[in-house]
Amino acid sequence: METSATRPDDGTVPALRLTGLHKVFADNVAVDHVDLVVPRGSFFGLVGPNGAGKTTALSMAVGLLRPDSGRSEVFGVDVWSDPVRAKSLMGVLPDGLAMPERLTGRELLTFIGQLRGIPDDVVAQRSQQLLNVMELNDAERTLVADYSTGMRKKIGLATALLHAPRLLVLDEPFEAVDPVSAAALKSILVRFVSSGGSVVLSSHVMALVEQLCDTVAVMAKGKVVAAGPLGDVRGDNTLEETFVRLVGVDSGDWEELSWLAS
C-alpha cells in the first residue's frame, strides 16, 4: 500500500504540511491541533506573541519534539515514520541553537558534513562557498565560542544549507542580529527562494515578515487564527495592525501606572 512516505513527489505536494499537531505540557496546551500548509516555493512567515506555540509547533514539524498526536510531512515524506529521508530535505535553524564551541566555523561545517555522509571534497567545496557568502572568511580560524550573535546565526544558517535542502525552517533567525548581518541573511534567503527553495520563518517582527514573506500564518494560544497569502491575511491594514486585532493584545491599565505621569 502506498503511503505518504513512499509516494513519489509529483511536484504538487506542499513543502510542509502539518495535520492535527497537538502537544500538552502538564496542564498547558502548547499546540492545539494545528493544521498548516506551506506551499512549495513560498517564503512563509509564522508570527505570534510569546507563548503562542510557534517554537513548539516548529520543533514538532522538523522532528525535534514528538507530538502527542498529529503528523508533519515534508514534500510528502512523514517526518516521524521516515525521519532520515525527511531530514535530508530540510535544513533547520532552531532558536538558541547549541553548537560545538571549541570548533572553528570551517571545522564545524566539516563536522556537520561528515555526520551527513557528504563526500569530503564536496564538503570542502561547499564550506568554502558558504564561508564566502556568509562573509565569515576572515573568522574561519575563530572558535565558535568567540563568535558574535550575528556570526553564530550565519554559521548556523550555513550548517542548515550545507546538504542542499529544499526547505529551510528558521526559528527567530534575526533575533539580536545586527543590521549588517541581518541584511546578509535576508539576501541569502531571498536568493534561496528565488532559486526554487522554500522557507518557513518565525518572527516577532511584523515589518520583517511583511518585507520578506509572501505567505503568513498567525498563531495565538496554540492555535492558527489566520493563514494564507500575505495580502489576504492583512487586508487593508498593516500586518502589525491585523496581528493586534487577531491576537487581542491587551495594553494593560494605564491608571495603575499613574505615578509615571508628570
UniProtKB/TrEMBL annotation:
Gene3D superfamilies for this protein: P-loop containing nucleotide triphosphate hydrolases (3.40.50.300)
Protein's name in the database: ABC-2 type transport system ATP-binding protein
Keyword set, alphabetical order: ATP-binding, Nucleotide-binding, Transport
Residue intervals of the ABC transporter domain: 16-246
Matches recorded under SUPFAM superfamilies: P-loop containing nucleoside triphosphate hydrolases (SSF52540)
Species this protein is from: Nonomuraea maritima
Keyword Transport part of the UniProt annotation: yes
Single GO MF annotation: ATP binding
InterPro entries reported for this sequence: AAA+_ATPase, ABC_transporter-like_ATP-bd, ABC_Transporter_VariousFunc, P-loop_NTPase
